[in-house]
C-alpha cells in the first residue's frame, strides 16, 4: 500500500534511515522546529537502510557520490543545513 511516511532528521553529520525500497523522498521541512523528511513509500516492499549526510553552509563537502535532498534551518533559523543522500 502506498502511503506517505515521516522521518525525523537527526542533527548529526552522518546517519541512516531504514525505509521501504524505492521510497521517494518528497520534502524536507521543519515541523514544530524539528527537521523532518516526508517520503512516498510502498509499505508492502522490503526495508532498506539508506545513508545520509548533513552539510552546513560554507562547510566542505567530503563525499563524492551524493544526491541533494533539501535544505532546512535549525537553532532559531540561525543555522542553514543541507541534506544529501549518499549513493552507493
Secondary-structure map with pairings?
Elements: E1 2-8, E2 14-20, E3 24-31, E4 34-42, E5 47-56, E6 66-74, E7 79-86
Antiparallel strand pairs: 1-4, 2-5, 3-4, 5-7, 6-7
Give an overview in words.
- Helix content is 0%, strand content 66%.
- With 88 residues, the protein is mainly beta.
- The protein has one domain.
- The strands form two sheets. It has a four-stranded antiparallel β-sheet with strand order 2-5-7-6, with no helix packed on it.
- It is globular.
- The mean pLDDT is 95.
Structural key phrases:
88 residues; mainly beta; 4-stranded antiparallel sheet; 66% strand
Largest sheet: 4 strands, antiparallel
Count the strands? 7
Output the number of helix runs. Answer: 0
List segments where confidence is low: pLDDT < 50 over at least 5 consecutive residues.
none
What percent of residues are in strands? over 45%
What is the residue-mean pLDDT, rounded to a whole number?
Answer: 95
**How many domains, in number, for the residues?**
1
Round the Cα radius of gyration to an integer and report it. 13 Å
Q: What structural class should be given to the helix and strand makeup?
A: mainly beta
Distance between the termini: 27 Å
Strand order of the largest sheet: 2-5-7-6
- Give, in order, the helices and strands: EEEEEEE
What would the principal axes of the Cα set say about the shape?
A: globular
Portion of residues within helices: under 10%
Amino acid at each position: 500500500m502506498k502511503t506517505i511516511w515521516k522521518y525525523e532528521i537527526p542533527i548529526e553529520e552522518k546517519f541512516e534511515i531504514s525505509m521501504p525500497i524505492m521510497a521517494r523522498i518528497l520534502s524536507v521541512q521543519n515541523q514544530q522546529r524539528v527537521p523532518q523528511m516526508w517520503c512516498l513509500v510502498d509499505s508492502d516492499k522490503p526495508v532498506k537502510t539508506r545513508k545520509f549526510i548533513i552539510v552546513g553552509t560554507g562547510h566542505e563537502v567530503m563525499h563524492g557520490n551524493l544526491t541533494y535532498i533539501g535544505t532546512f534551518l535549525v537553532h532559531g533559523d540561525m543555522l542553514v543545513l543541507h541534506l544529501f543522500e549518499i549513493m552507493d
